[in-house]
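Sample entry was shown:
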Amino acid sequence: MKRIEFIDVAKFLAMILVVFTHGIKECNFVALVFSFHLPVFFVLNGMTLKVENQTFGDFLVKKLKRYIIPMFGLGFLCVLFELLIKWLLNLPIPEHFIIKSIANLINQIRTFAIWFLPALFFTDIILFGFHRLSKGRLSIMGILSLLVLGIGIIFNLNHNVPLVWNFDAALFGTIFTYTGFAFRHKKLSGLYNFLTKKRLWAFLIGTALMTATYFISQYVYTNTHFHLEMFFRIYKPYYIMIPNAIIGSIGFILICRGITNPILAKPVEMNLALLPFHQVLAFPIFRSILFPEWWAKVHMLPASDFQYILFATTMTLFSIALIAVIHFAIKYSPFSIIVNQPLASFYHRKKRLQA
């Protein structure tokens, strides 16, 4: 499938926001970004979701390769990196650390920053089923997605616990993935073309939507001291946070359509490595090994302080640079599948020479 440049730009820039906001303390900016920064991945996933003309078996295999193999492969590397950091910092290593960590990875209940990969997996499977059940009727798929959201809200109200493979997040993620799927559906092609055909128009509309998201997110944060947080299962007030997440996601995507550029689109292939390794590896190295004195100087400063922002920005850039090296090391290894990359061509040449 031909890649769509502005979708790749949106995925990469959204990942940069994830990395940056994971590295700073709670503030109004975090409240804004968190209001859409995970939902937008579900929306973008829906925009590229193909469910027609394939068997469930073929669809399942594709999704296992795209989400579940990376979840386990990257998760195992996270365990090793976490062990490395503990060793470098002379931190105590719990008994049976690797065995317990792998057990947690298998259960995958909010384990490492890759936790939402199985949630994306489940939303795709659910929408595939809805597409078959509704015979492709977009309206019925939407109704069914709202029913799943309702189940998610009821479960969140009465239990609010994470489920194995983070299925609870998929109950909310389904409506976001459906939104992306509907946005690019041929039945809504007129709306899609109207919003995305001209870059300036897309940018202006996206900015208007993002402005609305800003004011809504600040209103909620000011009055409740909470923001949307899928990791900690914070969605209330549902009637504000869920629509606001959709508005913010579409606004962000349209802004990315307005600024789309090949330079911003190409690094998207690093996303899978950036996702798990920035917290478990890059941040500890930057804060505790490379610049402990700088970190000690700024970590108590308010989030709005220039020195604090400079530290967080530098740490984000360092994370991108470090993880780029790791990404390409994995990409050109025999295990490239764990970052969703094909096996490098020289491995195929080796096989032909051996034959």
